[in-house]
Amino acid sequence: MQHEDTLQVMRLDPKHTCSRVWENKRVKSSWLAQTFVEEVKTNPTVPVMSLKATMQRNINSGISLSKARRAKNKALKILEGLDGHHLKSPYGGQLLSAVGLDANNMTWMLVKDIELANQYGFTFISDKQKGLVEAFEEVVPNCDHRFCARHLSTNFSLVFKGKLLKDAMWRAAFATTVPKFMRAMELLRTLDGEAYTRLTAPERPPRHWSRSHFNTSLKCPILLNNLCESFNSWIMSTRSKPIISMMEEIKVKLMRRIQMRRDLTMRWERAICLRPLAKLETSKKTSC
To answer: Domain of life of the organism in this record (predicted)?
Structure first.
């Protein structure tokens, strides 16, 4: 009612006919972290699968593995102010991995230190974490270095809200020529001058995040760090094991993958890789 703190029920349907849904999207990882912080405090190294089962049993609702993992990481931050470790075993630590992309868009994964005698022709893409830019300039100064556009967009959207600004930023990132890039940046400046200033700051040169300024001798247009994200997902089941067992299992997975790729290439009948050949044939048809 007007001017009163009351509610009026306009319609009441006491009989429910809808079916019960196990997955509840309204269950957020932040709420799970607050609810199960004591469980994580009691056993900080609890496997995510076990924690997920405990959560589902207690709240009587289904949750995804990624949501359980985010909830655990947030609970750890509540307890100790820590960020999630890459390795989930009692020993902790991080696994540093290098993931490569060949001419056929096939991924090759190496868990080792990289020593490059001839640095020309290599490109590294990272999340621009603290210290990485300086490390690349010192260790591999002759290699190209790119920023993951998704992480750049995420940080950009935290300050500058709205789909128009986000789309303008991505239009500049996907631009393949300098004139297209300039038009996209000019549009961004008309939308928000501060957003334009942020993307044109000296620490964000376009050669790191826009295709229009990439080195043309390197035939790789990727903007996202999906290779490492996919690798981390691929070895998810190994990261809760002891270090030696984890490394042995990763080695076996890599050996099988490399052999599978080798068997696939043995069936090629052309000198050009299959995927570039398919793109070439498509271009030939569309150009006629």
So the answer is: Eukaryota
Same domain, 69 and 108: no
User: What residues contact 88, with CB distance under 8 A and at least 6 apart?
Assistant: 45, 47, 48, 239, 240
Where does a domain end: 181, 201, 226? 226
Q: Tell me the per-residue pLDDT of 158-208, one tens digit each, with 9 for 90 and over.
A: 888 888 888 999 999 999 899 999 999 999 999 988 989 988 888 888 888
116 contacts 100 by C-beta, under 8 angstroms: no
Q: Is residue 48 part of a domain?
A: yes
Inside any domain, residue 145: yes
Q: 165: closest CA among 147, 205, 186, 192?
A: 192
Buried b (16+ CB within 10 A) or exposed e, 86-114: ebbbeeeeebebebeeeeeeebebeeeee
Torsion angle in degrees (nearest 10) through CA of 40, 42, 43, 46: -40
Tell whether 139 and 189 lie within a shared domain.
yes
How far apart, in whole angstroms, are the C-alpha atoms of residue 233 and residue 220?
23
Q: Are residues 54 and 154 in the same domain?
A: no
Task: Note the pLDDT tens digit of each residue in 3-56.
Answer: 566 777 788 777 777 666 667 777 888 888 878 877 776 676 788 888 888 888
Q: What share of the chain is helix, strand, coil (3-state, %, to 5)?
A: 50, 5, 40
Domains contained in the chain, number = 2
* Cα separation, 124 vs 141, whole angstroms: 11
Answer whether residue 269 is part of any domain: no
Token pair for residue 283? Answer: 């271009």
Q: What are the residues whose beta carbons fall under 8 Å from the beta carbon of 208, sequence distance 6 or more?
A: 145, 146, 147
Kindly state whether residue 137 falls inside one of the protein's structural domains. yes
- pTM of the predicted model as reported, rounded to 2 decimal places: 0.53
Q: Is 113 helix (H, G, I), strand (E, B) or coil?
A: coil
Which residue, chain included where needed, has tokens 């020529």? 177
